[in-house]
Structure formats: structure tokens, C-alpha cells
Amino acid sequence: MTAPFTIAVDGPAAAGKGTISKAVAEHFGLAHLDTGLLYRVVGAKTLTGTDAIAAALALRAEDLAAANLRTPEVAQAASKVAVIAEVRAALIDFQRAFARRAGGAVLDGRDIGTVICPQAEAKLFVTASAEIRAHRRWLELTETGHDVTPDEVLTDVKARDERDTNRAEAPLKPARDAVQIDTSEMSIADAISAAIVAVSDKRPQR
Ligand code: DC
User: Fold this and answer.
1) CATH of 6-202, one of 1.10.10.60, 3.40.50.300, 2.30.30.240, 1.20.140.10
2) Does residue 108 line the site of ligand 1, with CB under 6 A?
3) What CA–CA distance (Å, rounded) separates 87 from 82?
């Protein structure tokens, strides 16, 4: 059997990581894990009074399919629980097991290339300016019926950037060997192509 091939995709909120990761996973026939969902599940539980560490220790794969994980409130709660070292530690095994499944996988998040899978065969760091990311997120939220202003979304995105980048535990930063893709001026199709080219460079011919 061929060794698993892990692709780590990191970057700030709404940079296009999810879209790129899904497309890359499909292109290479790999499974995909949006690791933000793990923190969103834990964050959502804290909104109903559950302790964050207990919620992280109790996390099961089925929880990732819960409804309402995509709201701005849950996003902020996720970013807050993500600073807690014990929460991060409780979520490591699940992510690493997923990364090394047969064939391999694409994982997207903030610390995949730096902490969760430092040995990943391919690493991407996907960015875009805060204004462009906020605009994309605002379109997405209003299309799905959320009543938010562009300014509120920009404030939210900046608050999460600040917390995700400056926390002590596994802060958001590119791995030294990550290929950086700035999607600010790119179409979705171009960003996906750039990602596929970058990964193909690292992938042995099969
Ligand atoms: O990718 P996302 O927007 O769904 O992530 C929600 C929050 O979860 C994000 O603000 C920070 C945290 N997160 C993290 O700390 N590490 C990850 N690997 C993924 C997400």
C-alpha cells in the first residue's frame, strides 16, 4: 500500500481555505477535514453552558455534522476556546488519525502545517486581505439569511485574526515550508489551480 499523503492548508478566516481544500481533496481523491469545525463544535457547546475542555474531550465525529456551526456567534466562540491549551490538546489525536488515514487527507485550519502535521507532504498557506475576506464572508452570510452589515463582519474577521494570530498556543502562521497563495486578486478557479499545481509538485507520480 502507498504511504498516506497529507496536505496541510492553513490561513486566516474566509481566505478561501475551505473551497480550495475541498477542490484539492476531490482532485487527488483524498478525504477532507475542516478542522475549524472541531473548534466550532466546542465553541457552540460553551454557548449553552458546557465547559470547553469537557466539550473537547467528549467530541465525536458525528458532532461535526451539527446544524448552526456556521453562525458568526459560533465562529467567535470557536476562536475563544481555541486559545485554551487543554482544548487544543484534546483535539490533536482526532486530527492526526484523520491525516494519516489510508491514502491520506487534506486538513484545513490554522496550525495544521506547524503543529498537527509538521511532516505533511504538502503545505499551503492561503491568505487574502482582511477587507476582501470580510466582503466574501458577508456575501456568504447574507446569502444564507444572516442579518449582518459589512462593517460588523469586518470587525469580526479582524477580532478573530487578532486572537488566532497572537495566542500563545499554536498561533496562526505559515509553516516555513508552506507555499503561500494570496487569493485577494484571484478567481476561485485560479486559486484552486494554483493549489493543485503546488501540491502536484510535492506528490510522487502514482
Ligand atoms: O476555520 P474556521 O473559521 O471555521 O475556524 C473557527 C475558529 O477555530 C478560528 O477562529 C480559530 C479556530 N481554529 C484553530 O484554532 N485551529 C484550527 N486548526 C482551526 C480553527
Assistant:
1) 3.40.50.300
2) no
3) 7
